[in-house]
# Entry
Amino acid sequence: MSLQMVSTVNNSSLLQPGFSLLNFDGHVFFFGQKGWPKRSCPTGVFLLDIKQNELKMKPAAFSKDSCYLPPLRYPALCTLRSDARADEYQYIIHGGKTPNNELSDKIYFMSLVSKTSKKIVFQCIEKDLGGDVPEARYGHTINVVHSRGKSMCVLFGGRTYTPLAQRTTEKWNSVVDCLPSVFLIDFEFGCCTSYILPELQDGLSFHVSIARDDTIYILGGHSLQNNTRSPNLYKLKIDLPLGSPALTCTILPGGISVSSAIVTQVSDTEFVLVGGYHSDNQKRLACNTIVLEDSKIEIVESVSPEWTPDIKHCRMWFGCDMGKGLILLGIPGANKQIIPDANYFYILRCKGAEEDEEEELITQICSQTSSEDPGDSAPFEDSEEFFFSAEANSFDADDADTYNEDDEEDESETGYWITCCASCNIDINTWVPFYSTELNKPAMILCSSGAGHWVHAQCMDLSETILLRLSEANVKYFCNKHVDLNKGLQTPQKVMCLKKPPMKPLRKKKTMKLPTSTKKSFLRRLFE
# Structure
């Protein structure tokens, strides 16, 4: 075994415990990011491009007839083929947690529609089930078995929230083990049937399951009720005759007490088990080889790689199967890192490079994602393994299409999609640009009332001309709700009285004084 470190060129904060990876035509796709998708990649599905020990993420698209697929963390997923050796397949995704920590009980089918060097398009369809429908859960596994020309899905294990009637304020979001029921799902008729087997007494989660033909092997797992990791190895055989299915469960010796382990296939009959936890605070650094031959299973200890000091001393780790003997391992980054939530990643090669070109993945491996967020109440084993049956081949796409999370702000923090007023109709799923200046976010303006708050310019019925003037001018703006209140609180401005110039007094008419001789002469003439 050899261990090699890889660097994440972009979006390392999206690669958190709980994600899943899909393999279509030898290309690896990421699903289940932390937080809601952004408008640059609304599907939340990315191509993982690994080239020269660098990992890049490039957005993928959905077809127009696809349903909405939320970013589910810790789901159960597997591949569905028409028969065990068929080349074409699609992925089944069930359960998981949304970014709001809500559990999903829905089941989706994802298939590849088209692929070019510039764009990859998927189709995602939600399936309706009847009968004994499994409750919402996470940390479980789903596998496909083939028997007598028929195929069915087998779902087992997981955790769910405490029933509403049993919740208290202090433990509102506490989780419990799901009942140890085995669900058979027939997608041809869309029905589910649950079975209770006496050999399965305790609920399990974060276990490893390997399916081959009509048999499923269940290894390890953690039980919350007993706080133990099961040392049992279960062999579940499903027979699908014309009538009702027949299920038998056998407890085999030689199991391993481990949770959150990762399994990768190195040959048609050989697998390697890596990682996991012995207890809440003890990682499992040993490795094992699993051999399946003639309906028998053999587990032996194998040589472990030279773990780095960072891996040895970290409290938690997580990872996923990359197919053909490759495993992607992640450990938490140092607290001094500039980028928050960043992790370090390694590729573990479980066999020689010359063997990688010979084998193809035929047996379905379904090892469930298994890591809770550090703030959750689940125990330490939740670094959670991931289902990753894919190859680490590079994809020759234009680097200009690489999605960079740093190019846009976190919309959950900046609040572009808030309800700014009672009549606000801005929705992230239906919004289209209204102003010519908008690109992928609605235009907003600050209301200066009180401490200030942001409102959508479109909701305030602002014209584009007024919006541009307000953005350029250094003036205060008040939204429709506070504009009248602001006018009432304003102090009237002091009106300066105009000073009128005083009116000039009327001038007296000057009288002309006549000499005395003239007066006398005038009077004589008047009386004559």
About this structure: The chain has a mean pLDDT of 78.
